[in-house]
Amino acid sequence: QVQLVESGGGLVQPGGSLRLSCAASGSILDINAMGWYRQAPRKQRELVAYIISGGSTNYADSVKGRFTISRDNAKNTVYLQMNSLQPEDTAVYYCNARVKTRSLRLGDYWGQGTQVNVSL
Predict the structure, then answer these.
(1) What is d(CA 105, CA 22) in angstroms, rounded to the nearest whole number?
(2) What is the layout of strands, in order, in the sheet containing 77-82?
(3) Residue 42 burial (CB < 10 Å; 0-12/13-18/19+)?
(4) What is the pLDDT along the chain (120 residues), one digit of tens a residue?
(5) Cα separation values, 38 from 63, 81, 100, 105, Å
(6) Contact in structure between 30 and 24 (CB atoms under 8 Å)
């Protein structure tokens, strides 16, 4: 099947930066889109940003101008550069990929999540 492995979370002070990475592996024929979601305590999971195979991107209003999503198609990896982090960015960040597998099945896959804490 398909596995997504995230890295790069941690603790940072307000105004700081972090870079998340997510590498996809397994029975991958093509990845249509990759993105990042987050879930804060007692809140629903929300979309942060996504990027499609052609390079077009979309961001949540709350992160526009601060976060940048990018993708290395050759490595099946998506990145999220997060700048000017604020306490309200604290959440578990999940990677998502819409993958067409070698068996020609299209499905959504999720990473295990990486914790981002923004605090003094």
Answers:
(1) 21
(2) 2-7, 18-26, 77-82, 67-72
(3) exposed
(4) 899 999 999 999 999 999 999 999 999 999 999 999 999 999 999 999 999 988 999 999 999 999 999 999 999 999 999 999 999 999 999 999 999 999 999 999 999 999 999 999
(5) 12, 14, 24, 26
(6) no
Q: Which residue has the tokens 């305590």?
A: 41
pLDDT of amino acid 54 = 86
**DSSP 8-state symbol, 20:** E
Structure token digits, residue 94: 């999940």
Residue with tokens 């490595």: 75
HSE, side-chain direction, 13 A CA sphere, residue 15: 1
Residue 85: both structure tokens together: 């982090």
CA-nearest of 93, 48, 42, 84 to 69 is 48
The CA angle 70-74-80, to the nearest 5 degrees, is 20
| Alpha-carbon span 63 to 105, nearest angstrom | 32
The CA distance from 107 to 66, in Å, is 30
